[in-house]
Amino acid sequence: MTAISDLSWDLVEKILSRVPIISIGAVRSTCKRWNRLSKVRVLCKAEAKRHQFLRFMLKNYKLCSMRFHLHGILDGEEFVDPSIREITGDSLNHVKVTKVFHCDGLLLCVTKDKEENKTTLLVWNPYLGQTRWIQPRNYYNRLDVYAFGYDSNNREHKILRFFLDAFDVSLFEIYDICSDSWRVLDITPNWNLMFYYRGVSLKGNTYFFAKEKIVLEAGGPEEIAEPHAILLSFDFTKERFGPPLPFPFKHYTEDTGTLSSLRDEKLAALYQSSSMCDVEVWVTTKIEPNAVSWVPFLKIDLKPLTGFEFQFHHDGSSFFIDEEKKVAVIFQIDESEMTCYDTAYLIGENGHFEKVGLGESEYHQDSIPMEDYSPLVCSCSYVPSLVHINNAFVKQTNEIITSCNDSV
């Protein structure tokens, strides 16, 4: 009878490449050799490539993994319901997750203690199974805004935190995961952040919806026309905001707008005017903290497809796109008279429109403040990461690599 230790390395590598990401814990418990190996190599490469739409979703304050299968979209087949699984673990069982940000295979979770209602930050590497609680310099505030990125020079991950008071930013702080320390940044913004639109991480930087700040001068007009939205980046390498960048549309406060990332290579922007049923999706051909260019991806009039003037929520949607199938999947809360539902809308070329229910939602405008509820889904597909966030593991990394190489 052949033991696991007797298998050839080529066969072991082929087997482990097909292991589902969610089953990596079982792999680690199989034998010590596989456990050591999983800490320095991504074993589930083939499975990760097949399930390119693996994402993380917030549902009723629980963090869930979610897969979408879009195989039959172009052939007119019925849509296969997404697979949604609640993620459990010691770090997540006793908290409510209110916001989640994805960057480089790591998740930043904004949480609340179920009993004390106290805000905390948790960084999690789902592949390595490592978690790290981030302590504040003083305390966290319910109105804090966060962004997650890394220094491109050394790949050190950082968290940007700033506090919003009546739409004005009063304090900027940055946390360095490697040094486990906070620093105050000297930044005087000349813009206002549209705080209900979550920032999106791309290539280590974070991009936001913002507006240039209006300054009323003495003796001037009492009212000035509302400026349209700008794209604003935060460069985690320079630890500074970049110059205002243009969107390919004129977005105002009541319009729908949200950002998404694609394979950590491109930025996508969804737009719908408050007075129109047309939905536009644009994709970047170039994106840097100080430069951007756009091309159209989709433009669809929803009125013929829905029979009425359908509008997505201007402050509570998230989305992702499939470039090959020319499909956008948009998530939002749908409210009936008594119940709210998490819902996905699929829109695509040739008038494709489909509504998929994702179950009841706890959210309701009368009981939960909008700032306590984040967009439903991390836009970027999850890719396993070997980034160590636990200092004890960082110190052991070289020893593990050496041990694995010797055994192989």
Automatic annotation (TrEMBL):
<dbReference type="InterPro" id="IPR001810">
    <property type="entry name" value="F-box_dom"/>
</dbReference>
<protein>
    <submittedName>
        <fullName>F-box protein At3g20030</fullName>
    </submittedName>
</protein>
<dbReference type="InterPro" id="IPR006527">
    <property type="entry name" value="F-box-assoc_dom_typ1"/>
</dbReference>
<dbReference type="InterPro" id="IPR036047">
    <property type="entry name" value="F-box-like_dom_sf"/>
</dbReference>
<dbReference type="Pfam" id="PF07734">
    <property type="entry name" value="FBA_1"/>
</dbReference>
<dbReference type="InterPro" id="IPR017451">
    <property type="entry name" value="F-box-assoc_interact_dom"/>
</dbReference>
<dbReference type="Pfam" id="PF00646">
    <property type="entry name" value="F-box"/>
</dbReference>
<dbReference type="InterPro" id="IPR050796">
    <property type="entry name" value="SCF_F-box_component"/>
</dbReference>
<feature type="domain" description="F-box">
    <location>
        <begin position="7"/>
        <end position="47"/>
    </location>
</feature>
